[in-house]
## 1
Amino acid sequence: MTLRLDEATYRRLERLAASTDRTKSGLTAEAVERYLDLSEWQANAIRSAVKKADSGAAKFIDHNDVDRWLASWGTADEGDPPA
């Protein structure tokens, strides 16, 4: 596998490898693994939320109602959460 990095990113990788006494390839492999973990989690969470939203059992609250409620936080007229 070949990885192309711009010069600034490559220099950052070199500095980090030197300061942590690790190899550039080790740091890169760890970065890719973390990226995949996060991206897979996010994709699964989105799929799950869409499935729930499409199921007909989901409850939705109008954006403007939520916006008004949040805008009231910290004021003397703080409202109740929308139903």
## 2
Amino acid sequence: MPEQYSEIVEAVKNEVKQLGDNTKQILAQINTDYAELKKLVDGKVDDVLVTERIDKFATDISTRQSELDRKQTNFEKLYTERMDQLETAMKRPGGGSGKEADKEFEEARNFLIASMGLKEGAAVHGKIKGIDVNLAEYKGYKDAFETFMRSKGDERQLDPNCHKALMVGSDPDGGYTVPTAMASRIIQRMYEMDPIRQLASVESISTRSIEFMVDWDEASYGWESESVAGAETGTPKFKSKEITTFTMYAKPRATQMLIEDSGINIENWVADKVANRFGRVEGAAFVSGDGVGKPRGFLTYANGTNYGQIEQVNMGHATALTADGFIDIKYSLKEQFLGMALAWLMNRSTVAAAMKLKDGSGNYIWKPSMLASDPGSSILGIPVRMSTTMPAVAAGALSVALADWKEAYTIVDRLGITIQRDPYTVKPLVEFYTRKRVGGDVTNFEAIKIGVISA
């Protein structure tokens, strides 16, 4: 193997080993606890203490499984990044490494596109292909941005050269576009926090909204022979779907002492605080947002099978989950959606309750993985993902969702995250007013089913 590739390959090997070492321990404990849980459930002893032990095992298992899901998500993201690096290195003429130069150029290009999108909106589309990337200008902006973040006053008190450099990324609505590395860190942390962003289709745009056609119907069909022409067929029914981006914001606060501490990476500190808030806010909107000033959640659509409706399948009991309910949901989906992107979505307490259910043959419907390479759990052979924003089990609650998420839901990110520094409003603290534009909506109503707790 050429020397320039070995560093990337070794990094992948180390990450695989680290994931495997950590995962094996957690997975072993999950399987041990699950064996104990099944013994207690199979014992059929109606005792308060036994019930408490069952509930504790189920909670512990779901907590550990959530940790495994997070580790697996992080690894998949890292693996993709490493493979992208390897592909770039292999395509480079002469085989030189140049990883830092490639990364810096890509950061500068993405930053310029984001800044242009914020300033010019739709007009930026025709300019992206021949965009002129100025690395020196971007480096100057990054240096000026760090100075801006650590300054005692606002940008008007900065050195004129620093203020001039910041104008490259100024936002007409106020504030400055965050450098690409900081924006990527925010998006990455949001990706790790809630599984919907991991599961759904994600589009990045430079305008306020995206519009596309949805094929809701199928073309008519028929037969024809050599001597008999086929009859005229109907045409598919297309629906126009527009997903608008909305602004969400966060205002993390820091002391001046923390900001002035050179040992603190202030950009990463702000990025982590912002991502935590953004992740919770958008995750809730993707599930239950009303679409007014925020993304529209999939739980807000009316029950039905027409366009603009999502079918709700009764779980078979007025206040609890049932195994038959999960079976009914699974087979209410068309065969074309029973593929690789299919996954259950529910909160941790719902998963814990599902662990105790058996099908008509006495088999538990929830199963932990036995493989460290694929540590996810499953229900009826379909992967399970946990989201804190899904409703808990209760009468009438929409507690279970099953979908081919790539088909069912689309998230739209408008390029560019902006930040304003406010050292005055909450003295002696400094407030970082950070804004990001995001939208989301259901794009295929047939690819998702909702389980409702109802008889």
